[in-house]
Design brief:
Shape: globular
Strand content: over 45%
Distance between the termini: 83 Å
Number of strands: 45
Number of helices: 5
Structural class: mainly beta
Mean pLDDT: 84
């Protein structure tokens, strides 16, 4: 017995002595892929067992900074291959020892190749396809002459902006717009209209978000990444824009590095006059009853200032802190004319909308070899003031009705995230996270309607807590992600009793790489669209003399299930993405229009369900060395079912076509034409006729390539928005027109 015990002890001691040796038998490979000094994110990294490249050992991709890590590599000799669209491949034999191997910068060279009579020069693609998103990097051509994010996104395939500036993704307005991964209080159209183009870096189009993303937004997420980090020790940018009809803008940015500190600051302003007009014909039993013409001169002033810093604590950790102040002032004087049996009624009004907001954001990240931790905190507070006055008079100038409103809203918004990511081994990765969101509105509302006074104090509270887990797998040609997000949400509206609701949001992604240029991916996700505070607000507010709005405190959240199949093709000459998707949405929140004589009431309600089957094709290519083309086409089959507002089942097929062409001419002159076309579209109560628009931009670099002068014409070809509205008992013909054409001149200079 003693001999057996001694033998066991001897074996244990032997194993303990051998353990360090085994632990040291794996190593790691690190490096950074660059184009000159600029990093190349999402380049493909493949490690082969030998020079024949018959057996893959590991596959990886570079991160946002162009860096990559290959962990758990056994000491021996390998062949490393690095590739990216438009660049010559990099191949090198490397020897791994028990010590980590740091390769440093790996520089890729642009690739050029002659094809018959067409010469295609390789260049870095501005479109990147990933397992869970599509990334569009904003090129100088896309930013040339643009003043706001709306101008830039109008050129991106899959993203549609209608005549009123409403953003849609795959034909659906249920889009969650994030700025650097964080939501805002402003509406999507206001966010895009007030974000200056000079601060944009790229946009992530996430049509089937994984469980790590907020599930808000049935159609998906647009995450706009701004240029906060600097590439040089000191860099400054100044942009000035001028346009006819009182349009001007300016942006000043400064990036400054000192030691471990990376500092940035920006100041921008914009003044925009946007004259519009809406013409309506009201029919009852196919007979014209009366017409109206509504003219509006929206005068918008926006100012934004931001300052921030990043501190490199050590080689693994970074802390960040920023402050932002914004002021939006919108003045909307309007006139109204109604013709009824040759007896005109006239009206005038004015709406003053002012919002001021402060934002503080703090973050911390730590990235080690196998795990990453991040903490992000955003706190915003501000005030919204809405004041309006409207008077309607008859043909004898006598007052028929009058309305005035004073609405003061104080709010604060809190958003925080904790994330942890760990590489379990060379194939498996686990992401865990916790996030929270708190929104509080305090609304003091007073109105005077035909000398009748009304006062309401309206409070709104939203609280969302969530945890998520995401398991990822990548080996050879296969990638997979499976995730689950659990949320506890509560929306309280003044004294109306509510209760929290708990929901689960699963996600699944499967991808197979067919070869170096082709891959297919299958995605599934579940989403939610919650009512916003203004859709909930129960009081009546007049937008103008013949239109009023009223929220619905009984609104329910809408849910959607999304399945999509993607085919991706990319080589050094062009890239292509084709998709087929199915979206099933229940309790869809819809804008409802009611008509009572000449008074239009807009409210919101849930409709039963909407099923959408769609297909899309988008891509970009260099047809010639001086001619670049990108665009996309989408077609949708829509099925709306609701007996209350649509009066039965409604089915339709419609499409969207977007085409952008860029010509590089002599003397650094670039000419680009952007166009889009949408066929007849059906909504619950509305039939929108075809909408089309096209614009042109000419830009030239000057002052040793530090300056850029751009001349842009928007709405050079323009249809306006035309629609039939089924607002029982009336059938309304409506034509909405914005200013066209719009001329703009801008100049930018980089120090």
């Amino acid at each position: 017995m003693n001999s057996i015990i001694k033998l066991r002890l001897l074996l244990i001691l032997l194993l303990l002595n051998m353990a360090p040796a085994f632990a040291q038998r794996t190593s790691s490979i690190t490096g950074k892929v660059v184009d000159g000094k600029a990093p190349i994110p999402y380049a493909n990294i493949v490690l082969f067992a030998d020079a024949t490249k018959q057996r893959q050992v590991q596959v990886a991709a570079t991160d946002e900074e162009g860096k990559f890590v290959l962990p758990n590599i056994a000491p021996t000799t390998y062949t490393l291959v690095v590739s990216f669209i438009g660049y010559q491949g990099y191949e090198k034999a490397i020897t791994v020892t028990e010590k980590p191997l740091a390769l440093g910068d790996i520089a890729l060279q642009l690739n050029s190749k002659a094809l018959d009579e067409v010469t295609v020069t390789g260049q870095r693609s501005n479109v990147e396809f990933h397992i869970d998103k599509e990334v569009v990097n904003f090129t100088p051509e896309m930013l040339a002459g643009a003043t706001s994010a709306s101008d830039v996104l109008a050129k991106v395939p899959q993203i549609t902006l209608d005549a009123t500036g409403q953003v849609k993704l795959r034909g659906d307005a249920g889009v969650r717009v994030l700025i650097d991964g964080k939501p805002t209080i402003l509406s999507a159209s206001d966010v895009l209209a007030t974000l200056p183009a000079g601060k944009l870096k790229k946009v992530e189009i996430i049509t089937s978000p994984s469980a790590k993303y907020d599930p808000e937004g049935a159609a998906g997420i647009l995450n706009i990444i701004t240029q906060q980090e600097n590439k040089a020790a000191t860099e400054a940018l100044v942009t000035i824009g001028l346009g006819l009809n009182k349009k001007y803008s300016g942006l000043a940015k400064l990036d400054y590095n000192v030691g471990k500190w990376s500092n940035y600051a920006s100041l921008n302003f914009r003044h925009e006059d946007r004259p519009t007009q809406t013409y309506r014909e009201y029919y009852l039993d196919n007979a014209l009853q009366f017409t109206s013409l509504y003219k509006e001169a929206e005068i918008e002033k926006f100012t934004n200032a931001e300052i921030g810093t990043d501190y490199k604590i050590d080689s693994l950790s970074t802390a960040s802190l920023s402050y932002q102040y914004s002021l939006l002032d919108r003045n909307t004087p309007s006139t109204y004319r109604q013709d009824e049996q040759s007896l005109p009624n006239t009206g005038s009004g004015n709406v003053l909308f002012t919002t001021s907001e402060n934002k503080v954001r703090a973050g911390y990240t730590r990235s080690a070899k196998r795990n990453t931790f991040g903490a992000d905190f955003l706190y915003a507070w501000g005030a919204v003031d809405i004041n309006s006055n409207n008077i309607l008079r008859n043909q004898n100038n006598a007052v028929l009705s009058s309305y005035s409103l004073a609405n003061t809203i104080g709010y604060y918004f809190l958003d925080y995230d904790l994330t942890y990511s760990r590489a379990l081994n060379q194939y498996w990765k686990l992401d865990l996270g916790y996030s929270g969101e708190e929104v509080h509105f305090s609304n003091d509302f007073t109105s005077l309607t035909n000398n009748v006074y009304n006062a309401v104090n309206y409070k709104y509270k939203e609280s969302i807590q969530a945890v998520f887990s995401l398991l990822s797998y990548a080996k050879g040609a296969y990638k997979a992600q499976v995730g689950l997000r659990l949320e506890n949400a509560l929306q309280e509206i003044s004294s109306i009793p509510t209760s929290p609701y708990v929901n689960a949001y699963p996600s699944l992604t499967l991808e197979r790489k067919l070869d170096d240029s082709k891959s297919i991916a299958l995605n599934f996700s579940r989403r939610i669209s919650r009512p916003d505070p203004f859709q909930f607000a129960p009081f009546v507010r007049y937008d103008n003399v013949n239109q009023r709005s009223q929220g619905n405190p009984l609104l329910k959240p809408a849910y959607s299930n999304n399945v999509e199949l993607n085919y991706l093709y990319a080589n050094e000459h062009f890239n292509l993405k084709s998709s087929v998707f199915l979206r099933n949405s229940q309790n869809v929140i819809n804008k409802i229009i009611r008509q009572d004589g000449d008074l239009t009431t807009i409210t919101f309600d849930n409709i039963a369900h909407v099923n959408t089957l769609g297909a899309s094709l988008s891509g970009e290519t260099n047809l010639l060395t001086w001619w670049k083309l990108n665009g996309g086409a989408e077609v949708f089959y829509n099925n709306i079912s609701d007996d209350q507002y649509t009066y039965g089942r409604r089915e339709s097929v419609y499409g969207v076509l977007k085409l952008n062409s860029i010509w590089t001419l002599k003397n650094n002159l670039k000419l680009q034409v952007n166009s889009n076309y949408t066929t007849t579209t059906y909504e619950a109560q509305r039939q929108l006729l075809p909408f089309y628009t096209a614009g042109i931009t000419a830009s030239v670099t000057t002052l040793k390539k530090r300056g850029n002068v751009s001349f842009r014409i928007d709405n050079l070809v323009y249809s306006g928005s035309r629609s039939w509205i089924n607002a029982q008992p009336y059938l309304i013909w409506e034509r909405y027109e914005a200013q066209n054409p719009i001329y703009r001149l801008s100049f930018s200079y980089k120090l």
